[in-house]
Amino acid sequence: MILSVGNCLSALLALTGTLVCAARLGDKPTTLNDHGNFHYLAVQLAPFDKAAEATPSAWEERARAVGDSLGYHVVGRVGELPDYYMFATEKWTTSAGVGPLEVRSEAHLEKERRLHEREIATAPYVVSAKAQIPTIRLHKRGPIPQNERGRPFRLDELRKELGIHDPGFGQQWHLVNTVIIGNDLNVTGVWKQGITGHNATVCFVDDGLDYNNPDLAENFYAEGSYDYNVHVKTPEPKLPEDRHGTRCAGEVAAVRNDVCGVGVAYNAKVSGVRILGGALTEADEAAAINYDYQNNHIYSCSWGPSDDGRSMEAPPQIVTDAVYNGIANGRGGLGSIFVFASGNGAASNDHCNADGYTNSIYTITVGALDRSNTHPVYSEACSAVMIVMYSSSGQKADAIYTTDWPGNGCTDGHGGTSAAAPLASGVYALVLQIRPDLTWRDMQHLTVENAVPVDLTDDGWEKTAVGRPFNNKYGYGKLDAYKLVEAAKRFQHVRPQTHIVSPVAESNKEIPHDFERLDSIISITEEDIKTANMSRIEHITVHVTIEHDSRGDIEMFLVSPHGIVSQLSTFRPRDSDPNGYQNWTLMTVKHWGEDPVGDWKFQVTDRIHPSRKGTLKYWWMTVWGETAPPTVTRPTIPPVSALLPAPNTSTSSASEPSETDADLQPPSLPPLPTSVVSKTTTLARPTATGEPPASETTVPVPTASRASGAYALVFGAAVLGAAGGGFYYIRRKRAADSSVEQDYEFEMLNDDEVDAAFDDEEDERSEMRLVNENRGPIPDRFVLSSMDEEEDEQP
Ligand SMILES: *[C@@H]1O[C@H](CO)[C@@H](O)[C@H](O)[C@H]1NC(C)=O
Ligand SMILES: *[C@@H]1O[C@H](CO)[C@@H](O)[C@H](O)[C@H]1NC(C)=O
Ligand SMILES: *[C@@H]1O[C@H](CO)[C@@H](O)[C@H](O)[C@H]1NC(C)=O
Ligand SMILES: *[C@@H]1O[C@H](CO)[C@@H](O)[C@H](O)[C@H]1NC(C)=O
Ligand SMILES: *[C@@H]1O[C@H](CO)[C@@H](O)[C@H](O)[C@H]1NC(C)=O
């Protein structure tokens, strides 16, 4: 050891000529957050040659070998990430030996950190090293609107039947709305079946949880709780403003008793992982979202990067890795359910595709819906919004009534997307009581297929290629608890995930002004589909690199082969960042269920400030989806005539599906858009390499991204395959041919709201396509709002 320290010394002196020996074993930190006296570094270790060798003890041994050889304390593994370890070293080592900490400048400490990082990162068996500095990067999503007087209710019968004596139940309009009938979660029919969240645990990653509160105590799950701000086991609120987490938790699991109101899943367990009560390191954030992840099933996250309409922030790598670790290994391999609030920055023109937490494919992004089923002005929209849930409105005071802190009380003032996301978490807890076997992707499919569109006169709605209405403000609509739970009862697992990484389309063209747009095309071929063994799309991520004088000026769209337009970004007047988009990922769920074969058009426009210019450097996309059914390779698609049922029978068979029939008989297919049909001619396209014959020049995907993609693919399939093995189910009606996914999707569209709104019968799909083509590249955006800015600044 002494020898190693000597090595370190000479190496660093040679390297820098001054300053420090990076590390010298002195005292070990006695706590995990002694940032005053220690540098902490999160170190990612290199993978083992053979996967079988990568046991926890082998990782630890590797960490210790690296730490010992360099003279660092190995504090322990970072959360549940097998390959990340926290190293620590005292801050007192200067070139002169001991130096008083007080006299050392922040610049000096920063230099030390860089040296430590460099020293560790260049050591054998190390991938990366990053100094951990607690900062405040994450913000709560809850503006607190004005309160309104409680209204009288007559709910006596329901109270009696369900044994609900909570005095505030009558004010919980989001559970039972007696003023505007139907504008609630429709949950009472679920409770009546005894489905109240038993056996499900929702973890509130937030600013604390008042577990002594009589409205929460009985449902509190202590083992799943921790405080990462001060590193103690108990997550109680510790600062005067720490009421947010308790309010969110009450929405899910407020106990049915004589205090306050009830939660959506009032017999679910809740835990609290405190991260918003002050500064936090990236490593602690990563550990937080995997905390006790075999027993915490749903992570409810009502926070994210600042909603100021300027920020564009993705989670740091270690957090991204933790999210992936959660979906791959959490809940016994079924995957943690991550629920994220979309953000409250819409009034500042913020957009949830500028937030790397909400635009992740692994999180369910929840926007807000107000009591009159309209869009609250604060709720951030984007193509990654999957659903909306009830919350406060922007103007008047009809917020959410829930448990509060301090003082064992209640509040009727909880709002923002902060209050919307927990309601989704609560509904998912109900689902998990009866279907604990659902995977993270099953939950997303269930959500997309059963969300109920609202406010259909809003002009942001557009039917997707499979006929399901989607709106960037509302996603696929709101969750109706009864409908979702009924669907969950008979939900059949989706097949494993796969994905296609497209080639990179290089453009290097200037982005035009004056209502013109730059188009760039990437083709997805039959060959790509076969290689990836994909049947139907789930998410699409688009990765862009754009240089621009003022990043917020740019608007981006993705147009599918069927003419469905995803608006990927909107004008953000406050975002004048001069660095453009550097490999930024945008996500859309709007193409869910669509057949991906054909030309995907990426469009960039800039309608603002002709003097501020930019260039689309390059982009590529990743198409995520479900694997094809086993034993069936995409056969030749039958002639159109064989697929098309009589127009007037297709409508009725779609609205009255018979389960047994559908399972036993070949699918009756909806009318196919002509562009789908025409793809039969592309079957023989000679594109073995997957390089599209697009009008744009294409260059191969950087090796790294291809390689890591393949790794993720294999890994994901293995994990999910293993998890699904016990109850794997082959959907017989899907076994016919490649178009079955459309049958499936179509069948799911069995709901009154949709029919009522889009009652144009057949051919409306082609009409839709026509509309897209005619309306040009720029679908309606959110109205600029003059709403005061305090809204998004509030805690
Ligand atoms: C709401 O729940 C009731 C049962 O309590 C059910 O009959 C009704 O269909 C549900 N509403 C929707 C839109 O599913
Ligand atoms: C909770 O889980 C246990 C063990 O799986 C099961 O036996 C029990 O029926 C579940 N309880 C409810 C109310 O679903
Ligand atoms: C495609 O995926 C299915 C699982 O959905 C698997 O059974 C089948 O073997 C895969 N086919 C190919 C060609 O990889
Ligand atoms: C459509 O329905 C009408 C009456 O409902 C019927 O006369 C007609 O034959 C049907 N058309 C087809 C193609 O089945
Ligand atoms: C760009 O982002 C993707 C996805 O996040 C990543 O896989 C890739 O390595 C990044 N490429 C570069 C050059 O940073």
Pick out its properties.
alpha+beta; Rossmann fold; Jelly Rolls; 21 helices; globular; disordered C terminus; binds 2-acetamido-2-deoxy-beta-D-glucopyranose
Molecules bound to protein: 2-acetamido-2-deoxy-beta-D-glucopyranose
**SS strand fraction:** 15-25%
Main pleated-sheet profile: 7 strands, parallel
The number of distinct helices, counting runs of at least 4 residues, comes to: 21
Query: What would you give as the CATH superfamily of the largest domain?
Result: Peptidase S8/S53 domain
Total strands: 29
Describe the fold and architecture.
This protein has 3 domains: 5-131, no CATH class; 160-494 and 782-791, Peptidase S8/S53 domain (Rossmann fold); 497-627, Jelly Rolls (Sandwich). 26% of the residues lie in helices and 21% in strands. The chain is built from 21 helices and 29 strands. The longest helix has 22 residues, at 703-724. The model is unreliable at 1-22, 144-153 and 649-795 (pLDDT under 50). The protein binds 2-acetamido-2-deoxy-beta-D-glucopyranose (NAG) (5 copies). One 2-acetamido-2-deoxy-beta-D-glucopyranose (NAG) binds at residues 495-496, 533, 627-630. The site of one 2-acetamido-2-deoxy-beta-D-glucopyranose (NAG) has 5 residues, from helix 11.
Please summarize what this structure is.
This is P/Homo B domain-containing protein. Helix content is 26%, strand content 21%.
